[in-house]
Amino acid sequence: MRTDQPQTIYLKDYQAPEYLIEETRLRFELHDDQTLVHAELRLQRNPTRGAGLPPLVLHGEELELLAVALDDQTLAAGDYQVEAGSLTLQPQGEAFVLKTSVRIHPESNTALEGLYVSGTMFCTQCEAEGFRKITYYLDRPDVMSVFTTTVEADRGKYPILLSNGNPVASGDAEGGRHWATWEDPFPKPAYLFALVAGDLRSVEDSYRTGSGRDVTLRIYVEPENIGKLQHAMDSLKKSMRWDEEVYGREYDLDIFMIVAVNDFNMGAMENKGLNIFNSSAVLASPRTATDAAHQRVEAIVAHEYFHNWSGNRVTCRDWFQLSLKEGFTVFRDAGFSSDMNSPTVKRIEDVAFLRTNQFAEDAGPMAHPVRPDHFIEISNFYTLTVYEKGAEVVRMLHTLLGPEGFRKGTDLYFERHDGQAVTCDDFIRALEDANGADFSQFKRWYSQSGTPRLAVSEQYDAAARTYRLTFRQSCPPTPGQPTKEPFVIPVQLGLLDGQGRDLPLRLEGESAAQGSDRVLSVTQAEQTFTFVDVPEQPLPSLLRGFSAPVKLSFPYSREQLTFLMQHDSDGFNRWDAGQQLAVQVLQGMIAGEPLDTRLVEALRSVAADDSLDPAMVAEMLSLPSEAYLVELAEQADPGAIHGARRQARRAIAESLRDVLWQRYRSAREASRATPYQASADHIARRSLQNAALGYLMLLEEPEARDAALEQFEDADNMTERLAALSALVNSGFEQEKAEVLARFFEEFKADPLVMDTWLSVQASSPLPGGLARVQALMQNPVFILKNPNKVRALIGAFANANLVNFHAEDGSGYRFLADQIITLNRLNPQIASRLLTPLTRWKKYGPARQALMRAELERILASGELSSDVYEVVSKSLA
Ligand code: 7MF
Ligand code: ZN
Questions:
Q1: Looking at residue 5, what is its pLDDT?
Q2: Pick from 228, 238, 326, 330: which is nearest to 279 by CA?
Q3: Beta carbons of 500 and 566 less than 8 angstroms apart
Q4: Which of 182, 242, 325, 580 has its CB 3.0 to 4.6 Å from that of 311, i.e. a possible disulfide?
Q5: Is cis: bond before 128, omega within 30 of 0?
Q6: Phi (first) and psi of residue 614, to 5 degrees
Q7: Which residues pair with 255 in a beta bridge?
Q8: What is the pLDDT of residue 499?
Q9: Any residues with CB less than 8 A from the CB of 776 and at least 6 apart, and which?
Q10: Segments of 119-159 assigned E as strands
Q11: What are phi and psi of 16, to 5 degrees?
Q12: Rounded to an integer, what distance in angstroms lies between the CA atom of residue 562 and that of residue 658?
C-alpha cells in the first residue's frame, strides 16, 4: 500500500539506464512458509551514458534483504541504502558482479503479482513491474539480459520445475528435494521472466517449422484438467503456421510451454518459452466450454504466441510504448481469427466491442492516447485504448499501405530491431522506410486521445453528373488535451446505384474509374471529394469494414438504411446499417415513440434469408446492446433504455414468431443429428439457433419453455445448454428456472470455470432483485473473493452487464460495488482498480445517479490507505 504521495511518471523524462545487466543467474529455494531468491547479476556501466560511475539504484519491493555482495565482497549495512522501492549502492568499476539474497512470501501474496501460489503450484506474473517483488533488479524493459534459473523445491509436492528457455540440468537435493536449471539464450527484459513449480500433468505434441526444426509443444495443467487441452494445442499449431505464412516469423527455441493456472489477474502472459495462462484461456471441451469460449482460447493462444516476435524478440523501450507490442499483437491475433473463422463476423464483434467500451473510455476521465505520456500506475494502462484502439491504428496503417507494403514494413521492423527495446516511432519509421511513405501526420493517432467525429454531407449535381462528399472532422476535448489537430482518416467507401450495385468510382482529375470500392484519405478538418461521371444520385456506403475508429455520421433516412442492409456489397456495412436503423428506432422509443415497424420488416427479411451466413443473420438480429445505447446517449436513463430494448425485442419475437421457430427447429434438428464440432459452420448454426431461442422465450409461451428445457436436457455441448439456461433464468418460469439452476450446479459444481458461467448468468439477469441474488451468491462456497475469475464472474458481471440492477435508483448497486473495491484494494489492487470502471462513467447518468456514484468514489478515496492502482483511477474520476 501507498504510504507516500504517489508519483506521476512522464514520457518526456525518459532516460536510458545508467547500468546494463549482461547476465542474470537466479536460484530459487521454494518452501511452504518462505522462498529464498539468490541473484547473481553481471552488470556494466551503460556505454551510451558517458563517463563516471553514478550510484546503482535497483528496484525492489516487499523484499527482505539477507545479504549483498559486490565482486564477492560482502557489503556491510553502511555500504548500501534500502528504501521502500529500491536498493542503492556505489559501484567501484565499469563492470562488476552483484550478488543478493532475499526472502519473499509467495504463500501470502494475494495481489497475484511477482511470485505467488495458486492452488498447489507456484507461478509468476511479472509484467509490467512485478519482477521487483522477486529480487532487486533493473526492472525496466530496456534492460535486457540472458537468464539462467535454478529452481529447488520438494520433489513430492513439486515434481515439475519450469522456467524460461531450455532445460539444461537437474538433480536431487537433500531432504527429499530436487532442482532443475533452465537457460534462456535470448536476452530479455525482466517482465518476461517466468517460473512454475507444481504437481502438473502435461500433453505434448511437436511442430516442424518451415525451416525444418522440430519444436516440442507442451501444455501443463492440474491433473483434473488434462482432458481439456486438445483445442488449445490445435490453436497453438495453427498460430505457429499462420505466423510463418502471413508474417514470415518462425519460432526460435526448441520447446514452447503453456501452463494453466486458476488464479490469474488477466487472460494470459507471453513469458519467453513459458506462457502462463488463466485456465479460462486454455481449457476447453465441448461439454464445459461454449463456442465463444473456444474462440477465446484460440485467440488468446494466438495472441501470446505472436508476442514471441511482436513483444519478445522486439520489445518496448519503456511502458509508454506498450501499444507497440499490444496494439500490433491484437491486430495480428485479429487477422488470425479472421482467417480461421468468418472475417465479417469477427469484424462485427470487434467493432461492437470497441464502440461500446473503448469509445466510452475515450470519453471518460481516464481517456489517454494510444501512447500515453504520463501515468501513476502502469497497471492501469493495460487499457482498451492501448490494446483495441492501438490495433485499429495498426489496421489503418495496413489499409493505407496495402497487404504487401505492410508486410515489407513489418519485415524491416523485425529485422532492424531484433533483440532491441524500441518505440512506436521506430515501428512507424520501419513502415515508412520500407514503403517511402510519410506518416508524420498519421502519428497523431498515437499522441491525441479522444474519438474523432466525422460528419459527412453530400451534393449531387444531375446536370454535371458530379457527386461531392464533404468530410468534417473534429475531436472532443479530453483530459489534458483541450484542442486537437486533424487526423489522417482512411475512409473506405462505395457508391450504390438504385439497384444496390456499386458504381465505378472516378474522382475529379482521374482519367478513368478506379474500381468500385476504394479508400480516401481524409487529412484536413474539412475536405471535399468530387466524383465525376456519376449517372444517378447514389447512396454512399461509408467507412466500409470500419476503416477508421471514428464516429461517422451521415443523414441517412430509415429507408436508406434498410436499403443498405439489403444491398451493400460490404457485409460489415450491411450489419452496421441495421444497427444504425435499430439505434434510431430505439432512441425514438426511449423518447416515447412507438416501435417503427420498418425495423421489424427489415429483420423479417434478414431472418428469412437462407442465402446469408447464419452467423450474420444472428448478428443482424441482435439489437444494439444496452451498454452501446448508454454510450450513445448524452445522458442515459437505464430504466428507459432497458424498457425500450425489451419492448422492441418482444415485438420482434411476436411478429417474427413463425420464421424464428422455423430457423430454431431446423438448427436444433441439425444439432441433434451430429456431435458437437467447434467448426465455423457449426458455430454459425448454433449462434442463430440460440438467438432465435432467446427471442422466442420472450413470448413466455409453454412451447418455447419446453424447447429450452429440451435443449438444456439433451444437448451434448455447453453452447446450447448455457443458452437454454440463460433463457430460462431470464424468464418468468420460476419453477423451471430454479430447477435448471440447481441441476446445472449439481452437475458442474466441481468445475470452477463452469461455475463462473453459472454465477455470471445469474449476476447479469435484469429481473428485479439482482443485488440480493448477487449477495446470496457471494455466500455460496463456489465464490472465492481471492480468485479473480470469480470476482469478474459475479461482481464484474453485475456491475457491467446488469444495467437496471446495478443502476438501481437507491444507489444500492453502487454502494455494493464500492464495498467490494474497498476490500479488494488490500487483497488485489489490480482487480480492485479494474472493478472501478463502471463508477468512472458517472457523467453519463442523470444528476441523482451522478451524486450517488460520486459519493461512492469519495467514500473509496477516504477509506484508508489506497493502492496506487485504485488511487489513480478514483482521483482522476473525481477531478
Ligand atoms: C488477447 O497482453 C488480447 C489481450 C498482458 C496482460 C495479455 O499478452 C497480454 C499480456 C491484459 C489485458 C489483455 C490481454 C493481456 C493482458 C490480452 C490477452 C489476450 N502481455 Br492486462
Ligand atoms: Zn498482449
A1: 73
A2: 228
A3: yes
A4: 325
A5: yes
A6: -55, -30
A7: 216
A8: 98
A9: none
A10: 121-125, 145-154
A11: -60, 155
A12: 22
Q: What is residue 653's predicted lDDT score, i.e. its pLDDT?
A: 98
Percentages (nearest 5) of helix, strand, coil residues in the chain: 45, 20, 30
**Interatomic CA distance for residues 652 and 659, integer angstroms:** 11
Residue closest by Cα to atom 20 of ligand 1? 269
The x, y and z cell numbers of residue 836, run together, are: 472501478
Q: Is 334 in the pocket of ligand 1 (CB under 6 A)?
A: no
Contacts of 463 (CB under 8 A, 6+ apart): none
Bridge partners, 88 (sequence order) = 57, 81
* Alpha carbon 350 to chain centroid, angstroms: 10
Would you call 282 exposed, middle or buried from its count of C-beta atoms within 10 A (0-12, 13-18, 19+)?
buried
Ligand 2 center from residue 332 Cα (angstroms): 10
Q: Which three cell numbers stand for residue 36?
A: 529464498
**Helix or strand (DSSP H, E) at 794:** none
Given the residues 61, 113, 129, 304, the one annotated as active site: 304
| Rounded-to-integer distance, Cα 313 and Cα 58, Å | 24
- What is the rounded CA–CA span in Å between residue 681 and residue 342? 9
b (16+ CB within 10 A) / e for 431-440:
bbebbebebe
Distance CA 451, CA 363 (A): 7
Residue identified by cell 465441448 is 286
Q: Which amino acid is at 165?
A: G
CA 430 to chain centre: 26
Q: Which helix (H) or strand (E) holds 66?
A: strand 64-70
**Is 316 a pocket residue for ligand 1 (Cβ < 6 Å)?**
no
Q: Ligand 1 within 6 A of 268 CB? A: yes
Pocket test for ligand 1, best of 301, 310, 382, 383 (most atoms within 8 A of CB): 382
- Does pTM surpass 0.85? yes
CA distance 284 to 277: 13
- List, run by run, the mean pLDDT of 10-residue segments along the chain (879 residues): 78 98 99 99 97 97 98 97 98 98 98 98 98 99 99 98 98 98 98 99 98 98 98 98 99 98 98 98 98 98 99 99 99 98 97 98 98 98 99 99 99 99 99 99 99 99 98 98 98 99 98 98 98 98 99 98 98 98 98 98 97 97 98 98 98 98 98 96 98 98 98 98 98 98 98 98 98 98 98 99 98 99 98 98 98 98 97 98
Q: Quick one: pLDDT at residue 1?
A: 57
Q: What is the largest CA-CA distance in the chain?
A: 95
